[in-house]
Amino acid sequence: MTLLQACGSAFVVTLVNPITVVAFISIFAAIGLSGAGEEPFDAWTVIAGVFVGALGWWWLLASIASVLRQRFTERGVRWLNAVSGAVIIGFGVYGLAALAWI
Description:
By secondary structure, the chain is mainly alpha-helical.
């Protein structure tokens, strides 16, 4: 997978993630960008800024992942996957426990 493919796939995953969409809508409403009387240019500027910012962020992450991937052995990748999985499971257990004690 090339760097451009990795960046593109990560960007598409971000775009179709409903939590990301809801988060952006919430942030825009909280800072007052949901006003109906605003100029169309202002709205397009915000959209372009979010697009460029998200693209830049994913480009940076894909670049770092590409560089680090070349340094990891197969054993190192398995270890990283196991640790990442354990952390995700830990957050899930914490979330369920917090929900149970509400």
